[in-house]
Amino acid sequence: MIEKVKGTIFNTGADLIVNTVNCDGIMGKGIALEFKLRYPGLFEEYKELCENGEIHVGKVYLHEVLGQKILSFPTKNHWRNPSKIEYIEKGLKDFARRYKEFEIESVAFPGLGTTNGGLRWEVVFPLMEKYLSDLPIKVFICEDQSRAEGVEREMLTYLYRFVNQWELLEELSKRLRIRESVLIGIRDNFPKRFYQINDMKIVTKTSYEKLFKYLYSLCKNGTDALISIEKKEPPVEKGISEQLTLFDDLNNL
Length: 253
Description:
Radius of gyration: 19 Å
CATH topology of the largest domain: Leucine Aminopeptidase, subunit E, domain 1
Strand order of the largest sheet: 1-6-5-2-4-3
CATH architecture of the largest domain: 3-Layer(aba) Sandwich
Largest sheet: 6 strands, mixed
Number of strands: 6
Number of domains: 2
Mean pLDDT: 88
Strand content: 5-15%
C-alpha cells in the first residue's frame, strides 16, 4: 500500500529508508549528503562499493547503520549527469523483485531522481506506483515539501538561538572554527529548511558539515558536548546548553 506524505523519509519511521546515489562514490549534496552526515560509516561503505565497481544503475544495495536499514538506489552514473527514467525503472524492478530479502514491513522513498537528477515528479511518481503499489508492505513516497519537522526542526531551533545571541554566536564560532561573519550571514538570511544553508554562497562545504554534525548530535544525544569534526574538543559550558533549551519552537521565523 502506498501513502504519499509531504515530509521527508527521515520522519516516517519506516523500517527501510531509500537514499538516491550516483555510481561515482560521491555524496556531495541533496539527500545523499544528508544521509552521509546523519549516518557515520555509510559513506565509507558506499564509496568502497563504488571503487570496487559494485554500484550500478538498476541494482539496489542494502546497508545497516546505527540500527537503521538504508537502501542505496542509483539514479545516475556520473554525479554531474542527470538521472534517466530508465534507470529509475530498472531500480524499481530490482527492489520489487528483492524486497523480501530485506525483511521489512515498511519502506520510505524520496522522489527518485526528481531533485538533483532533474526528472519531473509527474513522470516519476506513476512509475513508482506501477512497481510499488501491489507490494504487501507499507510504502511511503515522500515529497519533502513541508516545513522542517522532527530532528531538522530541532536543529534549526538550536541554530536560531545560537546566531541570535552574540555570546552564543561567538561560542559556536570558536568551537566549530567557523567565521563569525558566516554565522551572521546565516542569521540575516535564516532558512526555513536546514539544507538551504548549504546553498548559501558564504557557507563552505566544510562549515555546513560542521554545523550539521554538531547540531544533529546535540539533538540526538541530548548532550551539551560539542562534537568535534576534526579532533576532540572540550565540552561547551553547561550554561550555554541550558540557555539553548529556553527556545523551543520556530513560530517567529
